[in-house]
TrEMBL record:
Domain of life according to the entry: Eukaryota
Start and stop residues of the TPR repeats: 580-613
Keywords: Glycosyltransferase, Repeat, TPR repeat, Transferase
Protein name in the entry: protein O-GlcNAc transferase
PROSITE patterns membership: TPR (PS50005)
GO molecular function terms listed in the Swiss-Prot or TrEMBL record: protein O-acetylglucosaminyltransferase activity
SMART domains: TPR
Annotated organism of origin: Coemansia thaxteri
Pathways involved: Protein modification; protein glycosylation
Biased composition (Acidic residues): 1036-1051, 1357-1366
Length: 1434
C-alpha cells in the first residue's frame, strides 16, 4: 500500500477510548479526526472518513531504546478499504506492549522485539522514533490520567515504564550513574517465590484487578505502570515483587515485565536472579540490547568487569545509539583507577561514525554541518558524546582534533547553524546595541553588558523562545543538564581560542562564546571569567560607578573593558553573594583602577566567604602593602602560606614583604634560628610539607628554578613528536619561507631548515632538533626575527604593507614565572635564571602580539635627505616620577635639525611641572592613557617613528605590548628597568660597559665564541634531486656524534641558532639578549644641573673656589646641627637613603663591622618604610650588641628638594651592593657627598649603576671597591682618617634700606682628611662633570640612535660577519678559560684598541656588524671603555 505520512501531534483521548473498548472502527475515525485537526484536511475534526476509506497507523521505532510516537499515514488514492489490515496492525502493536494515555500528545511503544536501530515494518505499520516531553508536561499528564487501580498510586509517565532497563537498572552501575542499593527489605518476599492467590479470581498484589482481568493487555499494562511508579519510589517493596511475579506468571513472554522484574531483583541484591531474567529476555529476543546492558551492569557489580565490558560492547555494536550502554562503558574506560583513554576514544569514534549520516548546508549558508541519525530529544546525549570525544582527544594531546569535536558538539544542538555563524550572530547583536547607545565604532569587539548577554539567545532563536533548537524538546532537569553541558562546551572552546589564538582576533570569538554560555546557564563563575577577560581590554574611557567604602558610589573614569568587567563581577555576586573568586577579582580590578582601599574591602569580603582562600589572602597582602602598611601585609601573606604552603605567589609575596621591612627571621636555611615566637611561626609556615627545613628566600629560589625548568617544556610536541618533525613545524617553516623566499642570512637559514624538516631523519634534522631546547620559545623567536626582517625588506622595496607572520598551529600561550623580573634585583639568582625570567615574560608578550593579527606591523619610510629622524619615547612616568626628574630636559635638548621628538604618555596628566616641561620639550606629545594597544601602535606608525624608546621595561604601568607589535623599525630600551628585557622586541639597550660588560652580552659572547673557534659562518648549499631537497655543507657533514653534543653550547648545533644564541641554553654566563648602545661616560642621565640650582646665590656671592667651599661647609654644618642636634661634631655620619628592601643580612653585617671598628661613626637610614626600623634595631642588638645598635639612626623620608639638600649632611654614602642606589646616588653626588659602592655582581646591571655614575665624576677609583672586605676597610679608613677644626666666617648683614651693616661672625666646623678632599672636589667640579652634563649626554645618545638607524637600513645589525674574525687569528683553546680573568683582560684590551682607533679616526661610533654600538664622545673618546680591564677584577 502506498502511504503518505502525516505527522499528527495532537491530543488523542478518543483514540485511547476507542482502543480500550476494542472498537477499531471508532479508533480509525478518531485518527482521521486527529489528522483533520492537525492539518485542516477535513472541515470537521470529528468527521468520519468516507465509506470504504481507512488510514493505517504509522509508527517509527526509536532505535535508541526510547518510546515512540503515533503518526498517521494517509493512503494514496485508490488504496481501498484497509480496516482489516489496520486491525491486524493494532493487534501486533498491542502484543508489543503499546499503551495509550488520555491527554498525552503521542502514544508510546517499547522497543521490544524490533530488530536493530532505525525503522522496522510490522505488517503495514511503519515504526519510527519518538521522544518524551519536558518533565513538567509529564507530571501534568500523570495527574490527568484516568486509570483506576485499586490500591495503586495511579498511572505514571510511560518513558519510565518502557524505557530501557539501562534507564533504571544501569543507573545503579558503577560507571557514569549510580544508585545506592542498600539491604533488601526484610518484610518483602524473595523475588522468585510464588505469590499467593493463583486462582483466576485472586487479586493481583497491590491492585484491585483479578488475575483473570490481568490477562487482558490493557489491564496488564495499567498494572505495569503502577509497578514502575512503585519501583521509582521503593524498588525493594514486597508489594512490587509480588505484583511483578504475578504479571510474569500471567504473561511469561512479556518483555517489559521481565525487564522490570530483573531490575527489581538487582535492587534487592539478587544479582543471580537478575541475570536469570535478563537471560530469559534474550532467549525470547536475542537482540534485546537493554537486557545485554543490564547483564553488563549486574556482572560489574559481581566484580566481573571484563565480562561486563563485553556485554556492553555487544549492546553498543548492535545499537550504537543505545546511550545507557555507551555511557556505562565510557564510565568504566575512563575510571580514575585505570583510565583507558585510547579505548574510550575508539568507543566514541564508533558511535559517532555509526550515527553520522553525512553533511548538509548550514542554516546560515556559510558551510556545512554534520547530520546524525538521532532524534531531536536525544540531541543532548549526542552532544555529550561529542564532548567526551573532544575531551579524550585533548587528554591524548590532539588539541586541534578536540576543538573540532567541541565545535561539532555545539553544532549538534544549534538547529543547523555553524558555530561561526552563531558567533557572527552575537557580534551583530553587539553591533546593534553599540549603535543604539552611541558606542565607539572603532571598538571592533562585541561588548555586551550582562543583561544584554542574557537575552542574546532570545534574539538569535526566537522560534524556540531562546532555547537552543536541539534542546527545545527537553524540560526540567534534563534541559538544565543539557544546557549545562552546552555552556561548558562553549567555555572550553573559548579557552582554546584564548590559548591557541586560532583566529586573528581571538576575543572576537571568545566573548560571544562566553555570552552564549552565560545565557544558557547563569553561572557566577562564567561572570567571573568574563570579568577577567574584559578587564584586560584597554578601550576608550567611559563613565562608570566604582563602589566606595566611604559611603555610596563615586564617579570614575575607567576603560570600557574595565567598566563592563565591573558589571559582570557585580552580576555574578547577585547570583552568588558569597563567591570568593568574584570578590577577589573585583578587588584586583579596583586596585588596577587606583581604588586600593576599595580593593582591600573586596579582598576582605572574599576572605570572609572563605578564610582559607589563598589567592584572596595573598592579594589582600599585596593591597595592604601598596597602601604602605608593609608590616601588616606580612600577616596576610603568612596566612596564605599556611593555607597553601606551595602557593608560589604567597611565598614570593611573603618574601618581598619581609625583605621590604628587613624582617629576616627564617630568611635562609643557613642563617641563625629565630629567637622569638613570630620568627618560629614564620619558619614553620615556610617549611610546612617539606622534608628538610629551609628559609623563605631558599623557597623563592627553589620556586624560580622549578618554574624555569617547567617552562622549558612549553610547546613540547608542537614541533617535534617522536623525534620527527610534526606537520605544524613543516607548515610553520614553509610559511616563513614564503615571507622570506630568497636571500642570505635568515632566508638562507630558512632554506636549510625547510630541507631538514622535509627530510626529517638525517644529520641536519637531528642537529636542528637539538637546537629546539624550548620548542615554543624557538618558534616565537624565529617568527619575530622573520617579521622584523620582512619589515626591512618591505622598506627596501618601498612597499607599505607588511607580511603576516603566524605562529605554529596549536601553540598555546607560554607560562610566566611567579618571580617577576623586578624581583631579580634582590634575589640570589644566577645569570641564566635572571635572563630566563625576563625572557619568559617577553615570550608571553611576543606570543600575544604574533597571535593578534589585528595589529599590523607597519613598514617605515626613510627620512628624505635633510629631514629629521623621528624618535619616539613611550612611558607611563611623564609625571612627578623619578624618571621625569632625571629626563625632563632631554626631550627639549635634541637637535631639531636632525631629530623630531614624539612622546607617548600612557598615564593621565598629573599637572606637575615635570609633565609640563616634557610636553613643552617634545615636538609632538600624545596622551595615550586610555588608548588600546592597537591604537597606540597605529599612531606610532602613522607618525613615522624610526626609533622607538621604551622608558618602562618591566616596571609598573609599562605598555610593552606596544613594542611587541613592533610599530617602528628600531626598538630601544633605556632607564626604566635596570636589566635585560630578554625580548625579541628590543633591539638595543642603552648602557655603558661598566653596567653591562661585553662578556655578559649575547651578541658579543656569540662573536667571541666564533672567534675563539676560528669558525667562519658556514655556507650551506641546497640541491634539488627530483622532488626532494637535501642539504650539502660546504665542509664535510659528519654523522651525528651523539647526545653529548647537545650539552656543548658550541657544538655543531650552533649553526642552527639563526644568528643569535638561545636564551634557553644551559651554560653561558651572559644575560643581555639586546645589543648594547654603549654610552661613553655613563648611561645614567640626570637633570640635576637644570633642575636643582638652589645654591646658585651662594656660588655667585662666594667668588673664589676656596670661598665657595668655606661657604658650603658653613651650610653643611648648620644643616647637620638642624637634623642631628644631639650628635657631637666629631661623629662621622655614614648614610644610606635607599628603600630598606635593598638591605640584605650580609650587607647589614658589613655595616655593623664598620661601626664596631669606627667607634665615632653612625649610620643614618630612612624609615622607608617605617616598619623596618624595629627589625633592623632588633637584629643590630642580636648581632652586635646594644652599644653598636644605638649608633644606627633613622629619620623620615623627605620631599625631593629637601632630600637632595640634606644629602650634604652625610660625610659619606654607603651604597647597597645587591641593588645599588640609582637616582639616589646621583642626588648624593650632586650634593658633593662621596659614595662608596661595590659592584657585587657582574650579571646584575642594578648592582653596578653606582659604579657607573661615580666613574663619570673622574673620581671613580676612590669610591669603587671590588670585595666585601675592601668595602669595610675603605669605609673604616674614611671614618678614622677624618678630622675637623673650626673657623670663623664673617657674614655681612644688610641694614634696612639696603645699606651694609655690621659683620657677624660664625664658627664653622671644617673637615679634613681623604673624604673631605673628595667632597670638595665633587662639589666644586659638579658643573663641569660629565655626569651632570645633560646636553652632552643627549648629543652622545643621538650619535648612537643615528647609527642604530643606519645599521637597520643596511642590514648590518643582524650580520654575522664579525670584523674580529678578520683582525685576530683563531685561538686553539675551547676550554672554560674564556671566562677567566686573563681572557676578560685580553678581550677588554681588544675592545679598547678598537674604540680608540675609531675615536682617533674621527668616527663617532665603533660598531662592528651584528654587535653592539660604542659611542665616542666628541672630546674625550670613550672613557668608560678604559674601565673594562679594571672591571675584570670586579
Amino acid at each position: 500500500m502506498a502511504m503518505q505520512t502525516v505527522n499528527a501531534t495532537v491530543t488523542l483521548p478518543s483514540i485511547e477510548h476507542a482502543l480500550q473498548q476494542g472498537n477499531m472502527a471508532a479508533a480509525v475515525a478518531a485518527q482521521i479526526a486527529a489528522v483533520a485537526a492537525a492539518t485542516g484536511q477535513y472541515p470537521q475534526a470529528a468527521q468520519a472518513p468516507p465509506s470504504g476509506m481507512a488510514f493505517p497507523i504509522s509508527r517509527q521505532l526509536d532505535g535508541y531504546g526510547q518510546q515512540a510516537t503515533l503518526q498517521l499515514a494517509a493512503p494514496a488514492a485508490g488504496s481501498g478499504n484497509n480496516v482489516a489490515m489496520l486491525q491486524q496492525q493494532q493487534q501486533q502493536l498491542a502484543s508489543y506492549g503499546m499503551t495509550d494515555f488520555g491527554t498525552q500528545p503521542f502514544l508510546t511503544l517499547p522497543a521490544a522485539g524490533l530488530q536493530g536501530p532505525g525503522s522496522s515494518v510490522l505488517g503495514g505499520a511503519t515504526i519510527m522514533p519518538a521522544y518524551p516531553q519536558q518533565p513538567q508536561q509529564q507530571q501534568a499528564l500523570l495527574e490527568a490520567q484516568t486509570h483506576q487501580l485499586g490500591s495503586t498510586t495511579g498511572g505514571f509517565y510511560a518513558a519510565s515504564a518502557f524505557n530501557s532497563m539501562g534507564g533504571v537498572h544501569a543507573a545503579m552501575a558503577d560507571g557514569s550513574r549510580r544508585v545506592g542499593r542498600g539491604a533488601e527489605d526484610s518484610r518483602s518476599k524473595a523475588i522468585g517465590e510464588a505469590s499467593g492467590g493463583a486462582g483466576s479470581n485472586a487479586f493481583v498484589a497491590g491492585t484491585r484487578f483479578t488475575r483473570q482481568q490481568a490477562m487482558a493487555g490493557s489491564v496488564r499494562d495499567a498494572i505495569l505502570q503502577s509497578a514502575h511508579k512503585l519501583y521509582a519510589s521503593n524498588p525493594r517493596s514486597s508489594v512490587l515483587a509480588e505484583m511483578l511475579l504475578s504479571l510474569h506468571q500471567l504473561h511469561p513472554r512479556h518483555l517489559p515485565t521481565l525487564l522490570l522484574l530483573a531490575c527489581a531483583c538487582f535492587s534487592n541484591g539478587q544479582a543471580g536472579k537478575s541475570l536469570e531474567y535478563n537471560e530469559l529476555i534474550l532467549q525470547i529476543d536475542p537482540n534485546y540490547v537493554e537486557a545485554m546492558s543490564n547483564i553488563g551492569t549486574t556482572l560489574r557489580s559481581m566484580g566481573k568487569a571484563s565480562e561486563a565490558e563485553a556485554w556492553w560492547w555487544r549492546a553498543v555494536r548492535l545499537r550504537p545509539g543505545y546511550w545507557d550502554a555507551v555511557e556505562n562503558l565510557m564510565g568504566v574506560l575512563c575510571s580514575a583507577r585505570g583510565p583507558r583513554y585510547g579505548e574510550a576514544l575508539q568507543l566514541c569514534e564508533f558511535v559517532d561514525g555509526s550515527l553520522r549520516t553525512g553533511d548538509e548546508a548550514s542554516r546560515g549558508g556559510t558551510g556545512t554541518v554534520a547530520t546524525y541519525q538521532v532524534a531531536d530529544a536525544q540531541r543532548a546525549r549526542l552532544q555529550s558524546l561529542l564532548y567526551s570525544e573532544g575531551n579524550l582527544r585533548f587528554a591524548l594531546g590532539d588539541v586541534a582534533g578536540a576543538r573540532r569535536d567541541y565545535e561539532r558538539a555545539v553544532e549538534a544542538v544549534l538547529g543547523g547553524l555553524r558555530l561561526d555563524e552563531l558567533v557572527r550572530g552575537v557580534g551583530k547583536c553587539a553591533a546593534q546595541i553599540r549603535d543604539q547607545v552611541g558606542g565607539d565604532p572603532a571598538v571592533d569587539l562585541p561588548l555586551l553588558a550582562p543583561d544584554a548577554a542574557a537575552r542574546v539567545l532570545a534574539a538569535l532563536f526566537p522560534a524556540t523562545q531562546g532555547e537552543l533548537p536541539g534542546l527545545a524538546g527537553l524540560g526540567g532537569s534534563a534541559l538544565r543538564q543539557a544546557k549545562h553541558v552546552a555552556s561548558n562546551l562553549l567555555l572550553q572552546l573559548a579557552k582554546l581560542h584564548q590559548d591557541q589564538a586560532i583566529t586573528e582576533q581571538p576575543l572576537a570569538v571568545v566573548l560571544p562564546l562566553y555570552y552564549v554560555a552565560l545565557a544558557l546557564e547563569a553561572s557566577p563563575s562564567t561572570c567571573n571569567n568574563l570579568g577577567i577577560i574584559l578587564s584586560a581590554i584597554p578601550t576608550p574611557p567611559t563613565a562608570t560607578l566604582v563602589p566606595s567604602l566611604q559611603g555610596g558610589p563615586q564617579a570614575a573614569q575607567a576603560p570600557m573593558g574595565a567598566a563592563l568587567a565591573l558589571q559582570y563581577y557585580t552580576h555574578g555576586l547577585a547570583l552568588d553573594a558569597r563567591h570568593p573568586h568574584l570578590y577577589t577579582n573585583l578587588g584586583s580590578l579596583l586596585k588596577d583602577l587606583g581604588y586600593v582601599a576599595e580593593a582591600v574591602r573586596m579582598y576582605e569580603k572574599a576572605v570572609e566567604c572563605n578564610p582559607a582562600f589563598d589567592v584572596a589572602l595573598a592579594n589582600l597582602g599585596n593591597a595592604i602593602k601598596d597602601l604602605g602598611r608593609v608590616q601588616e601585609s606580612v600577616a596576610w601573606y603568612l596566612r596564605a602560606v599556611q593555607a597553601s604552603p606551595n602557593f608560589v605567589e604567597a611565598v614570593c609575596g611573603l618574601a618581598n614583604a619581609m625583605a621590604g621591612v628587613c624582617d629576616w627571621r627564617a630568611r635562609d636555611a643557613a642563617g641563625p634560628p629565630p629567637t622569638d615566637a613570630a620568627g618560629e611561626q614564620i619558619q614553620a609556615a615556610i617549611a610546612r610539607g617539606r622534608i628538610t627545613p629551609c628559609g623563605w628566600m631558599d623557597r623563592v629560589v627553589e620556586i624560580a628554578d622549578h618554574q624555569l625548568r617547567d617552562g622549558r617544556r612549553w610547546g613540547r610536541g608542537v614541533l617535534v613528536a617522536g623525534g620527527r618533525p610534526t606537520p605544524a613545524l613543516a607548515a610553520f617553516v614553509d610559511a616563513l619561507r614564503r615571507v622570506l623566499p630568497d636571500g642570505a642570512g635568515l632566508a638562507a637559514f630558512l632554506r636549510c631548515a625547510q630541507a631538514a624538516v622535509r627530510d626529517g631523519r638525517g644529520a641536519p634534522w637531528r642537529r636542528l632538533a637539538r637546537a629546539l631546547r624550548n620548542e615554543g620559545g624557538w618558534a616565537v623567536r624565529l617568527a619575530e626575527r622573520v617579521a622584523a626582517e620582512a619589515q626591512r625588506r618591505r622598506f627596501w622595496e618601498g612597499a607599505r604593507d607588511a607580511a603576516s607572520v603566524r605562529l605554529p598551529a596549536g601553540l598555546a600561550a607560554p607560562p610566566v614565572p611567579t618571580v617577576l623580573p623586578f624581583h631579580t634585583f634582590t634575589y640570589p639568582l644566577d645569570a641564566r635564571a635572571i635572563r630566563l625570567i625576563s625572557h619568559r615574560n617577553a615570550l608571553r608578550l611576543s606570543h600575544a602580539a604574533l597571535a593578534n593579527h589585528s595589529i599590523a606591523r607597519p613598514v617605515a619610510q626613510a627620512p628624505n635627505p635633510g629631514e629629521a629622524l623621528h624618535v619616539g619615547y613611550v612611558s607611563s612616568d611623564f609625571n612627578n616620577h623619578p624618571l621625569a626628574h632625571l629626563m625632563q630636559s632631554v626631550f627639549g635638548m635634541h637637535d631639531r635639525r636632525r631629530f623630531r621628538v614624539f612622546c607617548y604618555a600612557t598615564t593621565a596628566r598629573d599637572g606637575s611641572e615635570h609633565r609640563h616641561t616634557i610636553e613643552r620639550g617634545a615636538d609632538v606629545f600624545r596622551d595615550c592613557a586610555a588608548w588600546a594597544t592597537a591604537r597606540i601602535a597605529e599612531q606610532i606608525a602613522r607618525d613615522g617613528v624610526h626609533v622607538l624608546v621604551n622608558l618602562n621595561g618591566y616596571t609598573k604601568g609599562a605598555r610593552n605590548e606596544v613594542f611587541a607589535a613592533r610599530p617602528a623599525p628600531v626598538l630601544v630600551a633605556f632607564m626604566g628597568f635596570a636589566g635585560t628585557l630578554g625580548a625579541g622586541w628590543c633591539d638595543y639597550l642603552v648602557a655603558d660597559p661598566i653596567v653591562c660588560p661585553p662578556w655578559t652580552v649575547r651578541c658579543e659572547v656569540r662573536a667571541e665564541r666564533r672567534r675563539r673557534r676560528g669558525q667562519e659562518p658556514r655556507v650551506r648549499e641546497m640541491e634539488e634531486v627530483g622532488a626532494n631537497r637535501r642539504i650539502k655543507d660546504a665542509e664535510a657533514e659528519s654523522e651525528d656524534k651523539g647526545e653529548e653534543a647537545a650539552s656543548d653550547p658550541d657544538a655543531d648545533s650552533s649553526i642552527w641558532d639563526f644568528g643569535e644564541l638561545d636564551p634557553e641554553e644551559d651554560c653561558g654566563a651572559w644575560v643581555y639578549t639586546e645589543r648594547m648602545l654603549y654610552m661613553p661616560h655613563t648611561y645614567f642621565v640626570n637633570d640635576h644641573r637644570q633642575g636643582f640650582r638652589e645654591d646658585d646665590d651662594l656660588r655667585a656671592a662666594a667668588g673664589s673656589a676656596d670661598a665657595l667651599w668655606r661657604a658650603e661647609q658653613a651650610v653643611r654644618y648648620r644643616m647637620r646641627r638642624s637634623v642631628f642636634p644631639q650628635l657631637s661634631d666629631d661623629v662621622f655620619i655614614f648614610a644610606n637613603f635607599n628603600q630598606l628592601y635593598k638591605i640584605d643580612p650580609q650587607l647589614f653585617r658589613l655595616w655593623l663591622r664598620i661601626l664596631e671598628r669606627a667607634p665615632r661613626a653612625v649610620i643614618w637610614l630612612l624609615r622607608f618604610p617605617a616598619a623596618g626600623e624595629q627589625h633592623l634595631r632588633r637584629v643590630a642588638v642580636e648581632w652586635a650588641g646594644a652599644s653598636v645598635a644605638s649608633r644606627i639612626l633613622f629619620t623620615d623620608v623627605a620631599p625631593k628638594h629637601v632630600h637632595i639638600k640634606r644629602g650634604c649632611v652625610a660625610d659619606a654614602f654607603l651604597d647597597t651592593p645587591e641593588c645599588n642606589a640609582h637616582t639616589t646616588a646621583v642626588d648624593i653626588l650632586w650634593s658633593g657627598t662621596p659614595v662608596l659602592t661595590w659592584p657585587r655582581h657582574e650579571h646584575k646591571l642594578c648592582s653596578r649603576v653606582a659604579a657607573s655614575v661615580v666613574c663619570a665624576t673622574d673620581c671613580g677609583p676612590t669610591m669603587v671597591v671590588s670585595s666585601a672586605d675592601a668595602y669595610v676597610d675603605r669605609a673604616v679608613d674614611w671614618a678614622l682618617s677624618a678630622s675637623h677644626d673650626y673657623e670663623y666666617i664673617q657674614h655681612a648683614e644688610q641694614e634696612e634700606g639696603g645699606g651694609s651693616g655690621s659683620a657677624a661672625a660664625e664658627s664653622v666646623r671644617v673637615c679634613h682628611g681623604p673624604v673631605a678632599d673628595l667632597r670638595r672636589k665633587l662639589f666644586l667640579a659638579r658643573d663641569d662633570s660629565r655626569l651632570f652634563d645633560t646636553a652632552r649626554w643627549t648629543r652622545n645618545l643621538e650619535r648612537g640612535l643615528l647609527e642604530a638607524w643606519r645599521r637597520w637600513t643596511t642590514g648590518e645589525d643582524t650580520s654575522d660577519d664579525s670584523e674580529e674574525q678578520q683582525e685576530y687569528p683563531a685561538a686553539e683553546s675551547r676550554s672554560d678559560e674564556w671566562w677567566s680573568e686573563s681572557h676578560k683582560l685580553e678581550w677588554a684590551s681588544r675592545i679598547e684598541r678598537s674604540v680608540a682607533s675609531a675615536a682617533a679616526n674621527n668616527r663617532s661610533v665603533y660598531a662592528p656588524p651584528g654587535r653592539s654600538i660604542w659611542v665616542c664622545d666628541e672630546d674625550d673618546g670613550m672613557p668608560a671603555q678604559s674601565w673594562l680591564r679594571e672591571m675584570a677584577a670586579w
